[in-house]
């Protein structure tokens, strides 16, 4: 068999390799040259038919050609690999704005869940969320709310005081969310319709009290809102929250320095031994404080009580979470025990609404 013109063959193969547009074409070129039926392989096979001297010479030449071709393939492969990677990076860009894949192990704490549920329900009623600081001054936590210096409420609330400041005053950890009433009145013009969820602090610790707990405050101020609106709003909220359309709700005369008149709100329940059942029965459970905003409080908020009026109420978020979800001890809320959270926590789901419940 005749050997092909090796120089020409090598030049042709090198050209094909160097021009290979992609890795597939390069592989095809490699097979065409060095594969079992490749041109160089076939030439090797035909060496046997040559005279010994010719065979030696041609063999060396073929081996050199093989070497060069192999190197050329490797060099081209490096270039094409880099190009392929570049192309991939360009076309397969990571979209960091896509939502992360859900991590099913996490749970939503009952306090967060309950807070979200309250915000959703009040949101549908047209309330917006307002906030205030956890560390309050005496004016916003007490004085502006008509709780005078010597008022027993200051002791009753088991206030945490911060160290005395240069001017002799002491900041407090807010004992309720009511100071947000004052801050909102000072920063917004009526009509006002806000809820203020957040942390509150009192020095107390047992199965139903922890030094830090959560409240949600509601405040409505305009020219026309009256006690009937207060009652309707609270009844609608409680029935939506507990998802009991005919939940009995009772308003009982009470006293708060910052509302006049003031009422405590009870919901119907039954108690059998240690078992508490909400929504039916002949017993009552106190659930929140409420009333018409006291004229002095409106004044402290910079609002004319001759023109404006409204209502306010406040309730414990942890407490209604315990009642709704049957959690017996408040202290467990804040022990950060993952087993507890797995049991009582929530997977992210839709929050209830006034029309659809949970
Ligand atoms: N701030 C009161 C409390 O912590 C609750 C309340 C709020 C009562 C608003 C009336 C009006 O007990």
Task: Give an overview in words.
The chain is an alpha+beta fold and 358 residues long. The chain has two domains: 6-91; 110-344, 2-Layer Sandwich (BirA Bifunctional Protein, domain 2), CATH 3.30.930.10. It contains twelve helices and ten strands. The protein has helices at residues 6-19, 23-34, 39-45, 52-91, 110-124, 138-141, 152-156, 179-187, 227-242, 295-300, 317-325, 338-344; strands at 128-129, 135-136, 172-173, 192-201, 212-222, 249-256, 259-272, 275-278, 283-293, 309-316. The strands form two sheets. Strands 1, 4, 5, 6, 7, 8, 9 and 10 form an eight-stranded mixed sheet that branches. A two-stranded antiparallel ribbon has the order 2-3. A hairpin with a 2-residue loop joins strand 7 and strand 8 (275-278). It is rod-shaped and about 120 Å long. The mean pLDDT is 92. The structure holds phenylalanine.
Task: Please give the structural blueprint.
Blueprint: H1 6-19, H2 23-34, H3 39-45, H4 52-91, H5 110-124, E1 128-129, E2 135-136, H6 138-141, H7 152-156, E3 172-173, H8 179-187, E4 192-201, E5 212-222, H9 227-242, E6 249-256, E7 259-272, E8 275-278, E9 283-293, H10 295-300, E10 309-316, H11 317-325, H12 338-344
Parallel strand pairs: 1-4
Antiparallel strand pairs: 2-3, 4-5, 5-10, 6-7, 7-8, 7-9, 9-10
Helix pairs in contact: 1-4, 2-4, 5-11
The protein binds phenylalanine.
């Amino acid at each position: 068999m005749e050997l092909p013109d090796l120089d020409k063959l090598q030049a042709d193969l090198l050209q094909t390799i160097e021009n290979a547009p992609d890795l597939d074409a390069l592989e095809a070129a490699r097979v065409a040259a060095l594969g079992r039926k490749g041109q160089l392989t076939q030439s090797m096979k035909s060496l046997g038919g040559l005279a010994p001297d010719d065979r030696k010479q041609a063999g060396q030449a073929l081996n050199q050609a093989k070497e060069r071709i192999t190197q050329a393939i490797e060099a081209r492969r490096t270039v094409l690999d880099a190009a392929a990677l570049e192309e991939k990076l360009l076309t397969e860009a990571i979209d960091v704005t896509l939502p992360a894949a859900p991590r099913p192990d996490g749970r939503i704490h009952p306090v967060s869940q309950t807070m979200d549920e309250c915000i959703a329900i009040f949101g549908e009623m047209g309330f917006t969320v307002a906030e205030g600081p956890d560390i309050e001054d005496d004016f916003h936590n007490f004085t502006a709310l008509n709780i005078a210096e010597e008022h027993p409420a200051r002791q009753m609330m088991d206030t945490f005081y911060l160290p005395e400041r240069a001017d002799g005053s002491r900041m407090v950890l807010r004992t309720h969310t009511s100071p947000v009433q004052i801050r909102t009145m000072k920063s917004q013009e009526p009509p006002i319709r806000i809820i203020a969820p957040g942390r509150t602090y009192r020095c107390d610790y047992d199965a139903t009290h922890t030094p830090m707990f959560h409240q949600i405050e509601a405040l409505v101020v305009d020219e026309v809102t009256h006690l009937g609106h207060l009652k309707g709003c609270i009844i609608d909220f409680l029935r939506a929250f507990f998802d009991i359309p005919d939940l009995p709700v009772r308003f009982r005369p009470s006293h708060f320095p910052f509302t006049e008149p003031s009422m405590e709100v009870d919901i119907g329940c039954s108690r059998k031994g240690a078992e508490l059942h909400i929504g039916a029965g002949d017993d009552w459970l106190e659930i929140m404080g409420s009333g018409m905003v006291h004229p002095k409080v409106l004044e402290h908020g910079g609002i004319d009580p001759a023109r404006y009026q409204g209502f306010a109420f406040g309730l414990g978020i942890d407490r209604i979470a315990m009642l709704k979800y049957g959690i017996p001890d408040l202290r467990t809320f804040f022990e950060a025990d993952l087993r507890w959270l797995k049991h009582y926590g929530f997977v992210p789901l839709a929050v209830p609404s006034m029309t659809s419940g949970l």
